[in-house]
Amino acid sequence: PTKMDDGSVQFVRYSDLDQNAAGQIRWARVKSIKRAIEKLVRIYGQDVSRLVDLCRQCIVFDNIHDLSVCLGAIREDEEAHVVRIKNRFDENYNSAHSAGYRDV
Q1: What are phi and psi of 86, to 5 degrees?
Q2: Cβ contacts of residue 46 below 8 Å, gap of 6+?
Q3: Which alpha helices (DSSP H) does 1-104 contain, by range?
Q4: Strands (E), 59-103
Q5: Which pLDDT tens digit goes with each residue over 24-83?
Q6: pTM
Q7: Bridge-partner residues for 3, per DSSP?
Q8: DSSP 8-state code for residue 32
Q9: InterPro entries per the record (predicted)?
């Protein structure tokens, strides 16, 4: 996301980025085989269809509004397919399970 002078947020597809800007993006590593197996056994009851975060990315926002705008843009993108959203900001989420860590 790019914040414009008027305060609005604009989103640009990665493929449309200026390569100088693209060089500033830090890609997450693919989940290790060890961690994937650990999640399958401990959390997902060996149901491999639930392991959906092998290759993931992270976008950081300064506020909830910008996060909401981004999620809306992803939802409207016909080329994007959202498999699952884990909302750790949900009031029903017990943050003690993640040592207070919150994300979407």
Answers
A1: -100, 110
A2: 40
A3: 19-22, 33-42, 64-76
A4: none
A5: 566 678 889 999 999 999 999 999 999 988 877 777 777 888 888 888 888 888 888 888
A6: 0.59
A7: 9
A8: P
A9: NT_sf
Give the type of residue at 12: V
C-alpha pair distances (Å), 60 with each of 6, 32, 40, 104: 20, 23, 27, 10
For tokens 């693919």, the residue is 30
**Sequence-ordered strand ranges (E) for the chain:** 2-3, 9-10
Tokens representing 19?
Answer: 């390569």
Main-chain phi, psi angles of 3, to 5 degrees: -85, 125
Q: Which amino acid makes up residue 1?
A: P
Could you give the CA distance from residue 68 to residue 11 in angstroms, rounded to a whole number?
Answer: 12
DSSP state of 27: P
Residues 90/97, Cβ–Cβ less than 8 Å? no
